[in-house]
Amino acid sequence: MKAFSVLAVAIVLSHAGYAQHQSFTLNPDASEVKIKLNTTHELVNGIFRIQSGSIEFDRSTSHISGLIVVAAGSGKTGNDSRDKKMNKDILKVDQFTTVSFVPKTYNGTIAASGDSTIQVSGVFTLLGSPHDLIVPLQIHMDGSKATAKGQFVVPYVQWGLKNPSFLIWKAENTVNVDLSLTGTLKN
Description:
Elements: H1 2-20, E1 21-26, E2 32-38, E3 43-58, E4 63-71, H2 80-90, E5 98-108, E6 114-126, E7 129-142, E8 145-154, E9 175-186
Antiparallel strand pairs: 1-3, 1-9, 2-3, 2-9, 3-4, 4-5, 5-6, 6-7, 7-8, 8-9
């Protein structure tokens, strides 16, 4: 009887620990990356397509891993000639087809359901060069569905990308990013 009790407690504890570990698989069709670039003449808005993404996280240890991949050449700003220049001269999509983020750790608490706010630290790779980045995220989990939204700034010129300014049209050296991820959760 005592052995059965110990076994029962071990099973319950193992399930409790297992429930802390989850995976989040992005739905690329329901997720997006929006950018905003301030210039002297207009606010340039753009949108990029997320190619793929999967995140593993453990609510009990703040461990997180995975990969989010954005198709570098998918950016659309509503101006075909600007998009062509962005792809060729700035993002160099012939050489670097993707932009990626690899999460490493997070601060904050992820609730089993409902809303949570965390700070995810990871590596953002742009033009093949890795850069440390912290992304604040608001997460909503509801059963097997989850969303994550965040805003952050990318100092693209500091990170080696060309500023698109020309003549009297001047662009800032940073771009604002709005991240919207939707996907499914699994234990």
